[in-house]
């Protein structure tokens, strides 16, 4: 079969292995790295990859051939944990943070997430759409082709739905594919202060059924944290969500370890997020239950903490991990997944291969899109990130600079030399 598009002469092509499950522990060390590689695309899908000169059978009269000396290619990068849609911004809290006021203290004072809730409730659909689209543009320019996006700055039905509608509209309109997560349990809304169980009942009885009926989200998430929701409350919400057919995520062990990880393991959550304070016992449970650890080192950086999630311990215990931005207005104001990947190396001592596996094949499993993306297996969508680098180590080593040269989404050129085309 001949290709529509043939990208040739990459210095290296990074090919993660799709073993039919996320890469666990030692498996994350492995990948196929094609020297002098090519990628053949047909009908927006991967037709073949290989080393050296492409087979003549791939080339027909209409095949467009493009050469990439001095560049590398990876499957389109996947940002599998973001709080994409919100009103306002929070730089007014920066001085407090710099002076050492803790994140949970700012939240307890009615700031933090609750400040963004006020701004999001006031923001129209169009305002939220435009702001989120801009963030997606930044992400695409950094080589990201799929993004998970959570609600959770409404904490009332009307605003939560508006956030989810923005995600749906942008999934349709933007080149980036979006995966939607319902997270009304991101904080206790001011109207329910001191009545968190009642708020969770409202979510369970009224919001979740509507999200399901209108097919607004695939995952359900909760912030299990001291001063926010307890492990028992998280268990209550997520078990109900599971009964209704949602896949599960949980923000756990971010600032304090209060049992969210046990809930994730018990209920078979797809992933547990953050895990900065994960204990040895928690790691063992997640490894056993095959809960993916979504790690967010730029959040640790931005919170100015020095406890990065114990990624190496997790791999030794046989866990599958991903790296992701957490892009949000408070604990991690960034859209740059490449910087997160570099923190994975510099602060967590992951290797470039482990990091690249984390943001491609493992991130695909984490957003339940493994059949479509995350590797260059024949038949997968031709989402391709091309970096200005001669080998796969370089983009992890040369930090805080956007090295994206081009991005293809489903075989279509969508970023070319720093611009969206
Ligand atoms: O993942 N931890 C809870 N939620 C976000 C922060 C959101 C915010 O501060 O606005 C997080 O860190
Ligand atoms: Fe988060």
Automatic annotation (TrEMBL):
Answer whether the UniProt record assigns the keyword Protein biosynthesis to this protein.
Answer: no
What catalytic activity does the UniProt entry give for this protein?
Answer: 4-imidazolone-5-propanoate + H2O = N-formimidoyl-L-glutamate
Which positions does UniProt annotate for N-formimidoyl-L-glutamate binding? 153, 328, 330
- Per its record, what are the GO molecular function terms? imidazolonepropionase activity; iron ion binding; zinc ion binding
Q: Does the keyword Plastid apply?
A: no
Give the record's keywords alphabetically: Cytoplasm, Histidine metabolism, Hydrolase, Iron, Metal-binding, Zinc
PANTHER family attached here? IMIDAZOLONEPROPIONASE, IMIDAZOLONEPROPIONASE-RELATED
Instruction: Report the protein name in the record.
Output: Imidazolonepropionase
